[in-house]
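User: quick one - fold this with nicotinamide-adenine-dinucleotide bound?
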Amino acid sequence: MSIKQFQNYIDGKLQAASNQQYLPVFNPALGEIYAETPDSEAQDVAAAVEAAQKAFPLWSNLPAERRAAYLNKMANLIEQQAETLALAETEDNGKPLWLSTKVDIPRSAANFRFFGTALTHFASEAHYMETVGINYTLRRPIGIVGCISPWNLPLYLFTWKIAPALAAGNCVIAKPSEITPQTAYLLSQIAQQADLPAGVLNIIHGLGAKVGKAIVEHPHIKAISFTGGTRTGREIASIAAPMFKKLSLELGGKNPSIIFADCEWDETLATTVRSAFTNQGEICLCGSRILVEKSIYDRFVAEFVAKIQELKVGDPLDTSSYLGAVVSKEHAEKVMSYISLAQAEGGVLLTGGKRVFPEGRCSKGWFIEPTVIANLSNSCRTNQEEIFGPVVTIQSFETEAEAIAIANDTEYGLAANVWTQNLSRAHRVAEELAFGIVWVNCWMLRDLRTPFGGVKNSGVGREGGWEALRFFTEPKNILVKYH
Ligand code: NAD
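Assistant: Sure. Structure tokens for the protein plus nicotinamide-adenine-dinucleotide:
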């Protein structure tokens, strides 16, 4: 059987890794290898940096409208190739095709479109000193920046970094996850079709511990924008901080969904199902700890579990599958080990808990039932560690203060969602929650202008809107004194 072969994109050219080595890439729904991707090394990073250095003077000095035109062209090409890209994302990641089609690919185009527009509106500050002079802040691109992204929303998160970095005038060395490299490879072809000048964007494939590390260590890569696990983030920070690199770290989460008795019932129930199990629970924003006010707990649990039992797990190409495969064998094993741990910790399985082996072409794939676990204290490992799969826990609370205390009792602080029709309580609770993002009566409703990111072990810095353009530029204050 012939398999697909991906390539690095360096200096405008598609090429193998310098060592000619490849890594296997799996289709998780089939449980088999379908492609290979370059197993790049520090040498490839060095070549990309050289190309980026050559490209930087031209790219950084292009008028904003010209850079914006390139970004908009990338967006158009993604839209034109949406069907191919969605299929590629599903083949690589295991997520349902309806989800890649509805969310991943449109958002990837939107990332280019949004920052292509934003850069033409980006302005900097002036600070006037009465009768003395005027300060103005010049914001220039940093130079060469590194963008490293994870496997759960492959093209969506890859472009969320690349687009603002390019918009701000930087040249980019980007690395997708070695587990889901396909759409990044297709993006390099799109960059060629958009006639992006050689060296402006370089995409290098390979292992995190090898080529990812080489990007972080390279002395000429002046900023790192990373999305991935908290442990990896810590490792990256330990290398980049002593080199005084600018760092943006978007890390793990253990997000609470807080449901008060006065919530709008049907919408709360339906959205809690989505926030728990969309993308097999493999979204950093998924609500994995569901906290329900005691007076409605029994009814909520009964109706929630009934809805979960209706969700179909199966072939991601089948439009009736709500959940596809989890991303890899290793990840399936990790998720299953947490289900065992939860039971060992005294958890009661309300539904799910087992692997699924669909009939037909996906019989060897890595599928897991959506799983709901009750009867656990918030302090146990199941409620403290990120599982990042189709597993949620349900706990009850009696007072607003208790809900806030349980929600905040985690080392993570990415996102929370709150369900109440009491306006004062909504504001009060949102303010008390130690999370970077709070959704009230909704989940994952995104406005790309807003600051995106977490507190505590969920990361450092914010992405989105002006935050991203500020991150990818270096401010310089210039004071002109009057005579
Ligand atoms: P990961 O940390 O294993 O890998 C992420 C990326 O980093 C990959 O490209 C990987 O190759 C690379 N990498 C690994 N080790 C590296 C190293 N030492 N140096 C440099 N690069 C290295 O994460 P993952 O398993 O791909 O993704 C899942 C994690 O991502 C979860 O923890 C999830 O919460 C998090 N995530 C966070 C957000 C957010 O916005 N906060 C969004 C999506 C995913």
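One thing worth noting: The chain has two domains: 4-251+458-479, 255-449.
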